[in-house]
Structure formats: C-alpha cells, structure tokens
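Write out this protein's structure.
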Amino acid sequence: MGKYICFGAVKGLIEGWEDMMPPVKAPSNWKDPAKIAQYEKEARAGLAEEAFKNPLASTITNVCLINHSGLVFTPKIEEALDMMTCYPIVAGIGIFEGLSRLFLQSAAAKTLDPAHWWAKLSPMTKYPYLSIDGKKIILDPVETLVGSSAAEWADPFKLAKILGIASPDLDTAQGRAEAAVALMKVMRA
C-alpha cells in the first residue's frame, strides 16, 4: 500500500455538556413523585454515556498518529488534520467518526483549511474505506477486514483474537493508533 498514517483519539465531555442533551423528564401521566425522581435519576446516569456519542456534547481531547515507519506523533488537536493531509492513506479504528469530530473542532477553532475537506467527505459514506479521486484512501482497518461496520462483527477485540495479534488498548489515543498499525500490518500495508 505504501505510506500511511494511523489515527487514534480519545474523547471527553465538554463543559456544559448537559445543555447539549435532551432534557430528562418522566412521562407526563406519572403522578408518584418517588417514581418520577427515580426515573429521572436513572435517565441522567445514562446521559453521560449518550453524550460521548453526541458531537456537540463531547470533543476529542487527545490525538496520536503513527506513520508507516513507526514514528509516533502526538500533535495538538488543531494540527492533526494538517499532518494527516500529507499522507495518501489514513487509517484508524473509528476513523470516520474521528475525522468528523476533528473537522468540527477545527471549524470551531477557526483552523479549518480547504485542504481538510477530505476529512469531512469520508464520514458521509458507510463503506469500510473511501478513495477520494484516487488520491487519498481513508479506512477503518477493522471494518475493512470484516467487511462491515455492524457492531457485532466489527469488534476489534474479537478480530485481534482471530488474527493472533495483541488485544488492543482502546482507552488511549496511542493504544488506538497502535491497534490500527497492527491491523494495517496484517493487511500488509
């Protein structure tokens, strides 16, 4: 495949994330204050988990990039798109959501450049990989290997076991990037 860079990122909730989420309210026909309070408490507990999926309530807090030669980069968030733009192949577990988040964050930070548009075009497809004008390939190695983005199939832990590679550390940006590198090596990239 040639030169590539693997992307890993972790997210965190923004300050005031609760305001970006729908309000929690018990059904209007409920009358028992204890049941209403219990319902709202339980609903709020699950709200933070849902907020991580909401691009307006969460943000990328840490990025790691590892290139085909094994060089590790930990750029500032606003520099990540610039660095990835220089490579013909960009890979990562959850790359499509990650690029969409980086695009939004770059726009908010006023650092978006026309050269970054490839990052926004990629999440608009539901394919495991995308080639833009034959110049740039963007792929999620898990989805590419299993041929699906369905959660029950695109499980990086199960895939690592099947392929006989180390179980990925998906809790850190570097762990996510290292997992993508390991999968790219399986694909002989």
